[in-house]
Amino acid sequence: MSDHDYSAIKLPEHVKTVLVTGAGGFVGQQLVKLLLSLYPSVRLITTDIVQPPNHGITDEKRLKSVKADLGDKTQLEGLFEGEKIGGVFALHGIMSGGSEANFPLGYSVNLDSHISLLKAVHAHANSQFPSTEPRPVYVFASSLAVYGGVTPQSVVDPKTTPVIPESSYGVQKHVVEMIVYDYGRKGYLDTRTVRLPTVVVRPGAPSSAASSYISGMIREPLNNQPSLCPIATSFDDPALDEYLTWVSRSKTVIRNILWALCFPEDKFKLALGYGLGGRVINLPGFQVTPRQIIQALIEHGGPEAAKLIEYKKDQAVINICNTWAGAFDNSVYLKMGFVVDDAKTGFGDAVKDFKEEMASQ
């Protein structure tokens, strides 16, 4: 399913069963597909607020798909009954625009349910993993939205740039980062956090993320549907060059999320040596402008496709986009074995990936 090399990515020996929350979302589905293809002997338990797909697997010894509300204690605890879960990918959440628009829901899903999940995994570890065994590995999917005091022209150095969120989504993610870190610091779980860049090109319906328009300006026109560009008034608007955005191909993000679980715990502090005890990773990405996105659409869909883009500023989206940094220093994470797309060809490759996905359906 990918052009990345996975030969060196080995699950820790004690990880025989993996739980994936948010498995009905795009990132969750792609991660589950990758796990199924790479590790035929590993049992997967997938869950979401809606029934996650089983990807053609009917044997529950291989893949158990569960519809569950993680805010409900009984449903949450039911995921662990009769299991010995050695790895967790906590991917579920309400996206940036949605959590900003619905304050209570954002905190319920992005904060409360993650705290409940951490407690449940900790209790499970105590009951199923003797003190002589390694702790379950817990990977929390956070966001670069935790950075505030930045603009699309900013370049974030993770060693020196403070984390000061400027959105409810960023606040919620950072609070959970701190708690995830504390569970690792205490030795309760082997925790690590990955901050995701904007993932392109996402298929399916538009999400509530403020960044959804980035995929939408490719996805909808290639499906002969109109798409909204909410940060400009026309193709001649200078804003198309000013809103620098940090993105990554979906295949690359999925590969890096998996590598986060496989990277040895004892090497984190040695590799990072700063920031939450070396347990937080800004997944690598590359910079793209809205104009470059439109140019990629023209290259892969023709001039007629670009005519399907409607330009209408949305101040709510602009307010969130104004708090995003346009670039991040990848260097320390690349030394750890995380990978990055080529800045010149990465977005075009992401569009090709999307077209291949469309053709296979």
Automatic annotation (TrEMBL):
Occurrences of domain NAD-dependent epimerase/dehydratase (ranges): 18-225
Keywords, comma-separated and alphabetical: Carbohydrate metabolism, NADP
The keyword Transmembrane is annotated on this UniProt entry: no
SUPFAM superfamilies: NAD(P)-binding Rossmann-fold domains
Pfam families: Epimerase
Domain of life: Eukaryota
Gene3D superfamilies attached to this UniProt entry: NAD(P)-binding Rossmann-like Domain, UDP-galactose 4-epimerase, domain 1
PANTHER family listed in its UniProt record: ADP-L-GLYCERO-D-MANNO-HEPTOSE-6-EPIMERASE (PTHR43103:SF3), NUCLEOSIDE-DIPHOSPHATE-SUGAR EPIMERASE (PTHR43103)
Protein name listed in UniProt: NAD-dependent epimerase/dehydratase
The organism of origin for this protein: Kwoniella heveanensis BCC8398
High-level lineage: Eukaryota, Fungi, Dikarya, Basidiomycota, Agaricomycotina
